[in-house]
Fold this sequence. Notes:
The complex is a heterodimer.
Chain A: H1 3-27, H2 36-64, H3 70-75, H4 86-89, H5 95-116, H6 122-150, H7 154-171, H8 179-186, H9 193-211, H10 233-241, H11 243-247
Helix pairs in contact in A: 1-2, 1-8, 2-6, 5-6, 5-7, 5-9, 6-9
Chain B: H1 10-13, H2 22-33, H3 46-65, H4 67-71, H5 80-105, H6 111-119, H7 137-154, H8 163-191, H9 195-214, H10 226-231, H11 239-257, E1 267-269, E2 274-276, H12 282-292, H13 296-309, H14 311-332
Antiparallel strand pairs in B: 1-2
Helix pairs in contact in B: 3-5, 5-8, 7-8, 7-9, 7-11
Bound molecules: fe (ii) ion (FE2) (3 copies).
Amino acid sequence: MNQPADALFQYLLRLGDDSLILGQRLTEWCGHAPTIEVDLSLSNLALDLIGQATLLLDYAGEVEDKGRDADRLAFHRDAEQFTNCLLVEQPNGDFAQTMARQFFFSCYSELMFAELETSADPRLAEIAAKAVKEVRYHADLAADWVIRLGDGTDESRRRMIEGLDWFWRFVDEMFAMDAAENALVQRGVAVDRAAIREAFDQRIAATLAQAGLEVQASGWPLSGGREGRHGEELSRLLAEMQVLPRAHPEAVW
Amino acid sequence: MYTTELDKNAARQTPPLSMENPDLLAAFEARVANDEFIEPKDWMPEAYRRTLTRQISQHAHSEIVGMLPEGNWLTRAPSLKRKAILLAKVQDEGGHGLYLYCAAETLGTSREEMIDALHSGRAKYSTIFNYPTLNWADIGAIGWLVDGAAIMNQVPLQRTSYGPYARAMIRICKEESFHQRQGYDLLLQMMKGTDAQKAMVQDAMNRWWWPSLMMFGPPDDNSPNSAQSIRWRIKRETNDELRQKFVDATVPQAELLGITVPDPDLKWNEARGHYDFGEINWDEFYAAVRGEGPVAKERMKARRAAWDEGAWVREAADAYEAKQAARRTSAAA
Ligand SMILES: [Fe+2]
Ligand SMILES: [Fe+2]
Ligand SMILES: [Fe+2]
C-alpha cells in the first residue's frame, strides 16, 4: 500500500473500531436495562454504531486492497491490532457509567462527523453525512440522561459523578493527532481534532452545568489505543465477540 | 403459546357470569357474536376483563422474557450483519412487550402491577423461553419455530374481540413474520456451510422441536376454558387445531432445509390430509409451566436483577420530572 492509502486505511480503522467496540459494549445491555424504553433506546444506539462500523470497516478494507471486508477486520484481528480509543472499550458499569461514556463519546463523535461531511474523500464524506444525524441524536439522549441523573436523587447524582469520574482520564486521547493524521488533514481528508476540542469542552461544560455537576481536569491522561495498546478488558471483549468466526474460520454465516 | 391459558388457578380467580347484570351481559354477548370490537370504555363482564388481562399480560411477559435467550447470543453473533439483524429482532420483541403492556393497561391494571406479578411468580409466560440457547443455530431455530408458532396463534387474534389487543396483534404479526423469514434464512445459510454448521442446525432442531409444539398449550380435552374464550373471540382456534396447522406447515420447511424432525412417529396421513405426529411429553410441559423449565430460575433471576438494579434510575427520572414540574409552576406563578 502506498503511504497516503495506508494513512487513510489507518484513519478509517480508528473511526470504525470506535463505533464497533462501543456498539459491542452497548449490546451487553440488551434485556437488562432499567426499563423497556431504555432497553430499546440502548439497542438503537448499538444498531447505529454497528451500522457505522460496517460502512467504515468495509471502506477501510477496500482502501487496503488485500481482500479484507468489515467482517474480516472485525472478527480476525487481535486486540493489539485494534485502534479504538480507550474510552469506548471501558466496561458498562452501572447505567450512569454507561451514559457518561456515551455522553463523552457521542459529543466528540458528532463534532468529528460534522467536519467529515465536507471531507475531500467523497466516500468518507457520505458515510459521515449519514452518521452525523445518528450521533447527534445519541449525544442529545446521553446529555439528557446526564442531566436527569445529575439532578435526580442523591443516589443518582452520586452515581453520575462516579460515572463521569471513570472517564476524564480518557478524554484527551480522543483529540490527539499524529503525523499520519496531520498529513490527511493537509489533504482535506481528515479532521484536525485539536480544532474541535473547544466546541467539545463547551458542550460538556454546558450540560454539566445544567446537571449541577462539575468538570474535572485529568491530571494524567491515558492513551495508547490508537497504537493498539489497550486496557485489560479489550481482549476479553474480543474473545467473546470473535468466538464463532475464530473457531470456524472457513464458515460463512 | 404466549397466549394460551397457563394458569390452572384461572377459573378460581374469575368471577362467575351469573354475578353480572343479565341485560348488560346479553348486550355484550350479542356485540361479540356480531364481530364488533369491544373498546376500553365499553361495559364488559368481569370475567372477560380478567381473562384478557391475564392473557395479554402473559403475552407481554413472554415478549420481554423472550429477549433473554436471544440476547444471550448478541455479543457472539458471527458477522456484523447477523448482529444487526438479531439486535433489531430483539428490539422488536421489546417493542411488542411495551405495546402489549399498554393494551393490557387499558383494562385497568398498571404495568408495574403486571411486572410485579411476573417477578413474584404469580404471572406466567410462555414455557418456550425457559429453554437454553446453546449454539448459534438456536437463534435461527427460535425465529423459524418459535416466532412461527407465535404467528399461527396470533394471526387469528388480529380479529379478537378486544379492540386494543386486535390492533396490537396486527402490528406484531407483521414483525413476527419478518422474524420467521430471517430465522429460516439464517438456518438455510448454515445448511450451505460446513459439517459443523449443519450439525449445529440439526442439534438446534432436536432441542427446539418438541418445546415448540408445547407452545400451543395442553391438549383440548385438558383445556377447560377454551369454549368460553372461543365464544368471546379471545381465542379463535383450539390448541390442537393450531398445533396440527403448525406441524403441517413446518415439516415441509424442515425437509427443504435438509434436516430431520426428531419424531419417529411423524408421517403423512393421506386419509386425514395431515401429518400424524408422536406423543408430546406433557409431564415436561407441566413442569415448565410450574416454573421448572431448564433455565426458568435463570430467566427470572435475570429479569428481577434488571428491574431491581434499575430502580434507582427510574426513581431518578421520576424525581427529575417532579422537580421540572415544580420549576414550571413556580416560573408560571
Ligand atoms: Fe414478538
Ligand atoms: Fe408475540
Ligand atoms: Fe418475533
